[in-house]
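Repro:
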Amino acid sequence: MGGWFGVLFNRLGSVVFATLALLIVPGGVTPAWSSFGDCGQPVSTGAGPVATDALIVLNAAVGAVQCDLCVCDVDNNGVINATDALGDLKVAVGQPVVLACPVCASNSCFSSQAPSCGGDCDPGETCAEDPEFPGECECFNACEIGPAPTCGGSCEATQPGTTCTSIQSQPAGQLPIELCACIPPGLTFCDQATGPACDGVCSPGTACESDGGSGCICAQLPVQPACGQASAPDCFGSCSDNTICEFNGVDACTCVAFTGQPESCFDAAEPVCGGVCAFGEVCSTDIESCGCLDLCEISGAPACGGPCDFQGDVCTHTTITLGADSLELCECRPGESIACAQSGAPTCGGDCPPGDTCGEDPGALGTCVCTPASLACFESQAPSCGGTCAVGETCVQTFGGFTECGCQPDGQVGCFESQAPSCGGNCPVGTTCSVDPEFSFRCECLDPCQLGPAPTCGGNCDGVDPGSACRSILVEPTGASPVDICECLPPALTFCSIATGPACDGFCGSGALCESDGGSGCICTALPVQPTCAQAQSPDCFGSCSQGTICEFDGVGACVCAAFTGQPETCYDAQGPSCGGVCGSGQLCAGDSFGDCECVSPCELGAAPACGGSCAFAGDVCTLTTFTVDGNSIDLCECREQQP
């Protein structure tokens, strides 16, 4: 976090930023987790270890990261190994295990004990008790340790050109606190700035923009997409905790374990802020620069309902006052957890069950109540389509008259919304909106191969699937006429039934793997799919849930189905054929015909010709379909929309 307000925020969120300081290292350098937490807590600061701590200890055991013995050697035997990680995890899930690390030879300021606070700091800073969070030690410059509101300390040692100024911080439901901060001269808040320049200050996740006249407003900025939706090879996408979005070296972006890669968000240029972060954070504008922020910090004040990365932190509405100007912020603050109903309306910052948000009760103003969070657009049910989309997009019904919702740019018609046979909607670059050759009553974005007439199929595949060949497929759904279509397929496609053992590299349907029959032949055998969420192994929680929910760790020791609100479907980042990952929409994570992992409906994993499994979207029917390529056929089950 850069600039003067970054320093101010460091005062307001010391737990988060002390940890980030340990993670931001030059490319290729292994980070060293120093004694930031207590024994067994290399990253957390709560009453005891959490699963994330155990993961870091395990990484230290295999040499992926460095960690002090006084933090990660939890059995005090002089080495850090997998046994330490297991012991840490047992404590995290509530088992009666006693941790005993050796005594640290020296402490940083952040790990020293208040009020003595004797740890090390950078030149020009002093280790002292935090005036906003009594009991915590932090490094302050001469200005910041001066008494407010006089604030006469110097800023020159750490922030030349700024002035030591008194500010007031007032978290919701608490008394205001006077603090000293280094402020640049001529600071302008956005509502005091003039258009069209609008160079005023806004809260994280927003930018100061013209209101169309001479005034300025803080406008919400879009945040980066999920990693699987990010553009390769830049891969500026978000991932879950302890992973980071990286190029897979071929053509896509995947979430991989965070082992010291630079969090490139801090090098990005605001207000675009394209960059990668770890620990479940997103790259967004942080006052006047780009930074990795909790979803809490970019949520809109005073609602402040986003999650925080560290156990025990609460997303809190805080008002920062400087002179006659104020700024409403959301921040993650350590504190006592309170129930939603006990928090004060209209701020309503209390705890709710997973997937719910705390807000003012419209039927009883002045009180707070937990309500289900809005689903992502594609999780909502047509024709209502009330789910959430990115800024500048609207949730609408797609496929003309069918039962699916999707996000489309404001004021534009998507291809799926246009009516066949005219098909005039928008499509991604390299594809064309045309009548679907398999479903003649709807429009779809087709690549050049799919547009080519079957069975000649001479279209180009290089733009969408390099290395594939445009080949003819005969599709014969049960009870319907056969259709000849063109698709990009591997040039040497071999069906499992004609493959030879023991290699058996042939082609099977989703959820099946081509294996030797014990002789020279090959057969398709069903792969095990992920268990139900309650049966899944925490904290990974690769389990299946019902439609509209997703399997998540409950933070204690079990996996629970929580409302799906746009979390990444990690199935697509899993490795075939095991395919452990999470999906939304009541789907399961399984291997597809080419060995990749994808989210499929139970229907698509069903054994043909029975095909009786359920489909994720209302109105779809599980149908036996025969696909024929070069004279070889395979029977599959697929969810097919019925012609109206």
